[in-house]
Design goal:
Strand content: under 5%
Structural class: mainly alpha
Distance between the termini: 16 Å
Largest sheet: none
Length: 190
């Protein structure tokens, strides 16, 4: 995201999410110091700058309907807001330091080399944590199966044979995701 877009996004988060909640009377969580909460709001605005107005408004409505605190008059914890926002509108891959870290690591490079990067990406996006051994094994297995399917389809296309429209979509999407994973590896190393 370019600087102007980022700044406009931050202003949008402040105007559509933060300020309406403050006008409704929500206060900082009681266990949070003023300076820490203000800094958390600033960082939250930076991180949520990618979100659409509609999804920000939806998030604001959800928070105002279920405020935190014993008296139901407090903002949610910043981390809870960020997690809920990611469920409503997941950030792009390039916005995720975790995805960049995974794909610039040997694990990600191995997945790229061996053809199971799209499956690894899906696991990391869904779980939002460093993949555990069992998840890596599942990604490798699914990746091997999908890689074989992709090779068969690519051979058919190269021979000039027609493929099912669903297979064409699968082939195109898998190539797109593979390219995104390669870009993530590059971004993480830059």
């Amino acid at each position: 995201m370019e600087r102007q877009e980022q700044e406009a996004g931050e202003r949008r988060v402040r105007a559509i999410l933060v300020e309406p909640l403050i006008r409704r009377g929500l206060k900082r969580p009681s266990d949070s110091k003023v300076a820490v909460f203000e800094e958390g709001l600033r960082e939250m605005c930076q991180k949520l700058a990618y979100m659409s107005e509609l999804n920000l408004a939806g998030l604001a409505e959800e928070i105002s309907a279920r405020p935190g605190g014993r008296n139901q008059d407090q903002f949610w914890q910043i981390n809870r807001i960020l997690n809920r926002a990611a469920e409503i509108e997941p950030p792009s891959d390039s916005a995720s330091p975790l995805l960049r870290a995974v794909f610039s690591n040997e694990l990600g490079r191995s997945a790229l080399r061996d053809g199971w990067a799209p499956e690894l990406r899906k696991i990391v996006r869904d779980e939002r944590r460093w993949p555990m051994e069992f998840a890596v094994m599942k990604a490798r297995e699914a990746g091997a199966q999908n890689q074989r399917r992709m090779e068969v389809l690519a051979r058919r296309v190269a021979q000039g044979l027609s493929i099912d429209p669903d297979d064409a979509v699968f082939l195109r999407r898998r190539q797109e995701v593979q390219a995104r994973c390669e870009a993530l590896a590059g971004e993480g190393q830059a």
